[in-house]
Design brief:
By secondary structure, the protein is mostly helical. Helix content is 44%, strand content 10%. Strands 1-5-2 form a three-stranded antiparallel β-sheet. A three-stranded antiparallel β-sheet has the order 6-8-7. Helix 1 runs antiparallel to helix 2, helix 2 crosses helix 4 and helix 8 crosses helix 10. The protein is elongated, with a radius of gyration of 26 Å. The protein starts with 9 loop residues before the first helix and ends with a helix.
Length: 324
């Protein structure tokens, strides 16, 4: 059974470690290999105890020390070696996974961060002064200081969908998003659904840009979202002609219109279960069939309800844009 590190006063541990290292000088000169190894084992145990004792609060469990440390530095890039030190155990990486999967903490690794950056057509974004794509595989970031209580259920969903036979990666991702309509899911969850294949990010982007599913992120239409969060706002696809709008144009139009419907003033942060307005869409003032282009001047932000009203020809665009 693996030895558990012990929290105690740090200074006596330091002194004890220093004494062991000092005595080890003669072993380096005269000892054979195995006696040297055996003599260093207590030093390793003391070093682990010293690392876990740097956290002065009484936190006996390694997994709790890890999240305590991450919560002290949210949205900061933390090296895995730091977590090894404060946890005092060799299996710290498994504990990080438990925090994500079983407890719902939004922790990303450098592997997922790089793939998340690929999903952002508008360009790489920064966290703690570093581009997502440049975070190293053995670095971690706690994105949210609050625990997501529904995460364990979503990981169960993800595991069920992940095991489906004869279903493409993109269809699995869509099924998972459809199982959580209007709810924020994480890049780590999407990666797991895709069986840890790096293509998950590209497939999510294709769902939004080529297939027309309203999957929003912090940089592609919903600035209130946390970094690394994805939301399928509604279970419906945009018309084919609306799927060709480049993300950078889409973002410029949304920003110009203050992320609000230009008819009723509705915005995403006003969403409620009783309101049929679910998402913001871009409408072509001059339709594609009439030669309308995907330019900022020809696009306007509307909520789904009023966008549908125009396409149902219940109202003309000129009348539609009058003050409500």
């Amino acid at each position: 059974m693996a030895r558990r590190s012990k929290q105690s006063a740090a200074e006596p541990l330091r002194q004890k470690l220093a004494a062991l290292i000092s005595d080890f000088e003669k072993d380096l000169k005269d000892g054979s290999l195995r006696p040297r190894v055996l003599k260093l084992i207590p030093a390793f145990h003391i070093l682990r105890d010293l690392g876990s004792s740097l956290i002065t609060e009484e936190i006996p469990a390694a997994v709790e020390r890890i999240i305590f440390y991450l919560k002290k530095y949210p949205r900061k890039i933390i090296h895995g070696d730091e977590l090894m030190v404060v946890s005092g155990i060799g299996e710290w990486a498994r504990r990080v996974r438990e925090l994500r999967v079983q407890q719902g903490w939004s922790i990303i690794s450098g592997v997922t961060a790089k793939e998340m950056a690929e999903a952002e057509e508008s360009g790489d974004i920064k966290i703690d002064g570093k581009l997502l794509s440049k975070i190293k595989p053995d670095e971690y970031v706690l994105l949210n200081e609050e625990c997501d209580k529904e995460a364990a259920h979503r990981w169960f969903q993800a595991n069920t969908i992940r095991k489906m036979k004869g279903v493409s990666v993109q269809d699995k991702l869509l099924k998972f998003l459809q199982a959580n309509i209007g709810k924020s899911v994480t890049g780590e969850e999407l990666r797991y659904v895709a069986n840890n294949r790096s293509e998950w990010a590209r497939r999510v982007r294709e769902l939004r840009t080529e297939e027309g599913w309203p999957v929003v992120t912090r940089t592609s239409g919903w600035p209130q979202l946390a970094i690394g969060a994805y939301v399928l706002v509604e279970d419906r696809q945009a018309p084919k002609h609306d799927r060709k709008i480049p993300d950078e144009v889409r973002i410029k139009v949304l920003e110009r219109d203050n992320h609000k419907c230009q008819k009723c003033g509705w915005s995403l942060d006003q969403r409620s279960s009783a309101d049929p307005r679910r998402l913001l869409e871009l409408h072509h003032k001059t339709h594609h069939v009439h030669g309308g282009s995907n330019t900022e001047d020809n696009l306007i932000t509307l909520c789904n309800v009023h966008h549908d009203a125009i396409h149902a020809k219940k109202i003309e665009i000129d009348e539609y844009l009058k003050s409500p």
